[in-house]
Design brief:
There is one protein chain. The strands form four sheets. This protein has a six-stranded parallel sheet with strand order 5-4-1-13-14-15. The protein is built from ten helices and 15 strands. The radius of gyration is 18 Å and the shape is globular. It is α/β, with parallel strands linked by helices. Helix 1 (about 20-30) runs parallel beside helix 10, helix 3 packs parallel to helix 4 (about 90-100) and helix 5 crosses helix 6 (about 155-165). The protein has two domains: about 5-40 and about 175-250, 3-Layer(aba) Sandwich (Rossmann fold); about 80-175, HAD superfamily/HAD-like (Rossmann fold), CATH 3.40.50. The chain binds magnesium ion (MG). The site of magnesium ion (MG) has 8 residues, from loops.
Length: about 260
């Protein structure tokens, strides 16, 4: 395989704690193939995500990271050119929108919604007014919750739902398991789907994204899913490993990612 597309939370770290052995495993993987870090998180820019990975000891640059916020900004630029955007989101989303040439405005052509831990009624009001006036409604992702050290907290999906209910309109969703972010990943790698593997801890986002675009998929059990949840799900990865370290040991032992488990 030429490229490994790695989810972050639940694969490399859990909240802000690195998963045992993951830093070393990712660096060893980088010696064998291209590695791209792919996250639905839009609160941090690619630059900040890369700096955090580097600080943890993973060799990484901003160009090795794709966030759903970056993907939303690129999606809009490629289809519509530099635009006006009203973001409901955090600094990482705003940074990516501006880097793609978009102007932040309360009177906008697009409303882009990501996780916003400073969400207010006023932001929802402005978002709704723009959508009612014809702005296109885009969601970075619709993850219902995110895992943290203190348990689950509401995800971007919960905020998207508020605006969806108010506006009566459904957003275009950029992040995993949807195609827009995967198109940007493939563009970025310049590879065929047959040369790429998705590695993630969630069946309904990471693994489904890989299956939908025809890539091989590897589920790690260091995050959301368990053997039991895998058993109950219709979404089946090509391969299941306990951790990313286990994947590396298997690859270094000559294993290949081929069939269904
Ligand atoms: Mg994850």
């Amino acid at each position: 395989m030429k490229a490994y597309i790695l989810d972050l939370d639940g694969v490399i770290h859990r909240g802000s704690n690195p998963i045992d052995g993951a830093v070393d495993a990712v660096n060893r993987l980088r010696d064998r193939a291209k590695v791209l870090f792919l996250t639905n998180n839009s609160t941090m820019s690619r630059r900040v995500v890369a700096a955090r990975l580097e600080a943890a000891g993973i060799r990484c640059g901003g160009g090795d990271v794709i966030t759903a916020g970056y993907a939303a900004a690129v999606y809009i630029r490629k289809r519509y050119g530099a635009s006006t955007v009203y973001p409901i989101g955090e600094a990482g989303l705003i940074e990516e929108l501006e880097l793609q040439g978009h102007a932040i405005s309360e009177d906008s052509e697009f409303v882009v919604v990501g996780l916003d831990r400073d969400l207010s009624y006023e932001k929802l009001r402005i978002g709704l007014r723009n959508i009612a006036d014809g702005a296109k409604f885009i969601a970075t992702n619709t993850d219902p919750v995110l895992p943290t050290e203190d348990g689950f907290v509401p995800g971007a999906g919960a905020i998207v739902c508020a605006l969806e209910t108010a506006s009566g309109q459904s957003p275009l969703v950029i992040g995993k398991p949807n195609q827009p972010i995967m198109d940007i990943v493939l563009d970025h790698l310049g590879l065929d789907v047959s040369e790429c593997v998705v590695v993630g801890d969630r069946l309904d986002t990471d693994i489904l994204a890989g299956i939908r675009c025809g890539m091989k998929t590897v589920l790690v059990l260091t995050g959301v899913e368990t053997r039991e949840s895998l058993e109950r799900s219709d979404i089946k990865p090509d391969c299941v490993v306990g951790s990313i370290t286990e994947l590396l040991v298997a690859l270094e032992g000559g294993a290949r990612i081929t069939g269904k488990p």
